[in-house]
Amino acid sequence: MRTIRIAATALIVCTALAACAGQETGDGTTTPTPTGASPVTELPTPDPTGSAPAPSPSDPVDPTAPTTRPTVRPSAPTKPPATAEITLTGRIESGVEPGCLLLDGYLLLGGPRDVLSAGASVTVTGRPDPTMMSTCQQGTPFVVASARRG
Asked: Which end of the chain is more exposed for a tag (fewer CB within 10 A), N or C?
């Protein structure tokens, strides 16, 4: 693992040095550009009087264009509206996973387990919560507020 780190560091250093080739040396001369690399384009030096230099015809930057970009804000995820409590009546079925109980296509979550058991006829009050995650893999999650045999 240490050999990989050393090799990666050496590769990064070599790449950085190669990228510097062809740069201005500071005394007004330019070092040769390696074969296959594009030559360095010199930027115009700022005018000490404060006026902006005229762009060259090959200059892709428009000096009159605004320098700031508009702020783009992604839309925030919307939370589904809260659902009102509803009452379900029927016979509870076992789900495909152990401990999962279904009633009319709803996955019963919470509630008294002595009342909520497979095969029992019940009346359950609660609210559906389709955003809730479950390992039961079936039915719309239904948070039980109260349950009674019926």
From this structure: N
* Integer Cα distance of 62 and 79 in angstroms: 43
36, burial (CB in 10 Å: exposed 0-12, middle 13-18, buried 19+):
exposed
Q: Pairing mode, if any, of strands 106-109 and 86-91?
A: unpaired
- From residue 23, alpha-carbon distances to 7, 17, 20, 59 in Å are 26, 11, 6, 19
Per-residue pLDDT 10s for the chain (150 aa) are 677 767 667 667 656 666 665 555 555 555 555 555 555 555 556 656 656 555 555 556 666 766 666 666 666 555 555 678 999 999 999 999 999 999 999 999 999 999 999 999 999 999 999 999 999 999 999 999 999 998
Nearest of 52, 73, 71 to residue 62 by alpha carbon:
52
